[in-house]
Amino acid sequence: MPLPRTRTALLVTGAGAGAALLARRALRKRVAASPLWPMPALEEPTSGRSVRGATTTRRLLITGRSSPAEGVVQLRLEGPGLPRWEPGAHIDLVLPSGAVRQYSLCGDPSDQGTYTVAVRLDEDGRGGSREAHAQLHEGEEVGVRGPRNRFPLVGADGYLFVVGGIGITPVLPMLRAVAASGAPWRLLYGGRSRATLPFLDEIEKLGADGDRVTVVPQDTSGHPDVAAALAGLAPGTAVYVCGPGPLMDAVAAALPEGCTLHLERFAAGAPGGDADAGAFEVELRRSERTVSVAAGQSVLAAVREELPHVSYSCEQGFCGTCQQRVLEGEIDHRDELLTDAERADSMLICVSRCRSGRLVLDL
Questions:
Q1: What's the farthest any 2 CA atoms get from each other in the chain?
Q2: What region does 211 belong to: left with phi over 0, alpha with psi -120 to 50, or beta?
Q3: Does the first or last residue of the chain, that is N or C, have fewer Cβ atoms within 10 Å of its Cβ?
Q4: CA 339 vs CA 207, 289, 323: distances in Å
Q5: What pLDDT, on a 0 to 100 scale, did the predictor assign at position 8?
Q6: How many CB atoms lie within 10 A of CB 13?
Q7: Mean pLDDT of the chain
Q8: CB-based contact 122:129 (threshold 8 Å)
């Protein structure tokens, strides 16, 4: 397979020409010696696909820190040349410890020099939110990757948003966009108490015209009546839900015919599978290697022992960074992210496994 031609033209003569020739020969020898060369003539791989810059870590300055609700810290991050984003997008925060956590962007997409995230303190979590609250302060820098968008705002005849607590963060830019467009919309917003609901004042102002916003504090009103909110929805309504699992399950169960459901889960199961999951083999077709995945071990962990460059982030099946193309084998999907179409030929190797004893990845 010939080397691709570059678009850079060099004019060299005499000794310079000889040096250039030797450099080209040396490069060809290094490429030929690579374990990945020559690559099989397969279709263009989708493995590791990402938006340009999505896996690049930037150092952004924290220029603002505030508290939009009890137990929630809002961070304003600034830096030059930030990639554009649309409502529903999230970024990875690379915390001082090296841990990586995903947080939805809740600021203004038209502000190209600023990202804004909000983090609720979760005392029972894995420690990322505690670290963010304790160590991320104004005037310091933090690593950021992304943005990515697995929860985009689609065009629809109307919208119903059902949100629990901190699940409002990806929805808030959607509410602003839909309100500005003039499209019909409603929001059902629940949480432990009014004091714990972020951005409540802004949201109630957005929905002041037409009683569009229903706020249900659990301490005074119990749980939101999902069935009542969904009853009578017109066909063509897009229903967006972000919050705890039981809330999303209730919406999915009561979804009227003709409406579309859009989910954003901000929590997931433990990485790697369970101890009862059996062992299997994974062939890395392009690398011409085979790895064994032990019971309870993630495919990601086994693959990175051979290919440490493979990208990953959340290790819980909701960011999509480790999505890889599957060439052969039956996949045991354990994520909450991929669409049915994506699941036909790809998997998130941080959580999903194999049903057939052997998988072949496009790696």
A1: 86
A2: left
A3: N
A4: 31, 29, 12
A5: 30
A6: 7
A7: 83
A8: yes
